Please model this.
Amino acid sequence: MKATPVIHAGNFQKGRDWAAAAGLALLINLLLFAALPAVKLPPAPAAEPYRQPGPVTVTRLRPSRPLPAPAPLVKPSVPEKKPEATAPARSVPAVKKVPAVSPEPVETTRPDSGAETTPEAPPVPAGPQVFDAMDLDSPLVPVFRKPPVYPAHAKRRNIQGWVTVSFLVDAKGRVTDVTVTESDPESIFDDSVIQCVSGWRFKPGTIAGRPVVTKVTTTIRFELKADE
Model:
């Protein structure tokens, strides 16, 4: 046997009601859409033209009440210092006056004019005048001038140097007052130079034909030769 579907009358009635409601709603929407063009909206208000703001005036208002004057500065009152009580001055006993004693006059006696007096010492005679070599009329002439001895310790160490020496040549041609003024190296050749120069002899220089004392300054060099 074939199965035949059974359609209930109640379900069919519900479908018809739903279709009728949907058709009614569609009809209402169509009517509203058709009526929209007929509705006139009010025109939009016209925009006002732009106005440039005018100049701004600033008015300075004065205060209605005057400002109160500043209060005067009040200096702090300094309390007056009370005078300190001072102790009463002690009375000083009166000093008895002592009579001044005047010294007795001393008698002075003048020496007799005939008394002997101590003779004054004679003045010390001045030394001979010293002249420079450029002041001479005739120059100094060496008579004996032996060279200095090269110190052995300086020769062993290959030390070379020089000595500047000054001295006086008296009126007889002898050398005195030998003094080393400068040397390099110091104190290496000084003694050899002093001993050597002290034995030199000269023919004295003259001024106006008279021999005079002359000051001389010379430099003696110590140099090693190749064969030494």
Summary: The first strand starts at residue 130 and ends at 132. Residues 114 and 120 are 17 Å apart (CA to CA). The first helix runs from residue 9 to 35. The domain at 130-222 is CATH 3.30.2420.10 (TolA/TonB C-terminal domain).
